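Quick one, tokens below. Sequence please?
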């Protein structure tokens, strides 16, 4: 099996992206307000793929990210591949979304509710969605975005202003998977950015 650097370099070549072995721009500091990047310690980014598109005012990165959580004498390191885009075409409220689990349902019974959509009950059963401005989050999650996540399960999504991150928890993707990951991330970016170009077309 090829080592990780070779694998990510291959993905960069196939996607016409630029490969960097480590974070050369201080992205970790830039993203520190996101929930993912506040977890644990020994946080590290590596094997970054980058694309800058001045015409679209977009800066895209795909990278490996890891952090370690220590509890007493034991520790565990979590690794995942993350899609991050910065673009002025995005104007996102602060929000976070993750797969819903049993504990979230208990919270709902106790009155700790997330944002649900009556017209998309499957999405509401699959995902736990929170944000400071609930109405702004509802406006962002139009029918196309809700359909995207109804079909595509078990994703994590966070956003604020011009920043968006998208990933699956504890999944370090192979070069073949990264190609599909890139396409999904770009589709999601297009759905969210088009909302600022005018009303949704039906």
């Amino acid at each position: 099996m090829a080592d990780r650097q070779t694998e990510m370099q291959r993905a960069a070549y196939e996607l016409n992206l630029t490969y960097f072995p480590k974070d050369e721009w201080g992205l970790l500091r830039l993203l520190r307000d996101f929930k993912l990047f506040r977890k644990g310690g020994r946080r590290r980014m590596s094997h970054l793929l980058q694309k800058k598109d001045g015409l679209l005012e977009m800066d895209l990165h795909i990278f490996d990210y890891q952090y370690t959580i220590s509890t007493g004498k034991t520790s565990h390191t979590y690794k995942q591949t993350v899609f991050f885009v910065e673009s002025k075409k995005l104007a996102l409220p602060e929000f976070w979304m993750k797969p819903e689990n049993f504990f979230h349902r208990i919270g709902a019974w106790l009155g700790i509710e997330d944002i649900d959509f009556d017209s998309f009950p499957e999405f509401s059963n699959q995902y736990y969605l929170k944000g400071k401005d609930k109405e702004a989050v509802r406006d962002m999650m139009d029918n196309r975005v809700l359909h995207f996540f109804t079909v595509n399960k078990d994703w994590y999504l966070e956003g604020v202003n011009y920043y968006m991150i998208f990933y699956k928890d504890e999944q370090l993707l192979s070069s073949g998977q990264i190609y599909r990951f890139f396409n999904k991330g770009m589709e999601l970016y297009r759905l969210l950015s088009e909302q600022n170009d005018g009303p949704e077309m039906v």
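The chain has seven helices and eight strands. The first strand starts at residue 18 and ends at 22.
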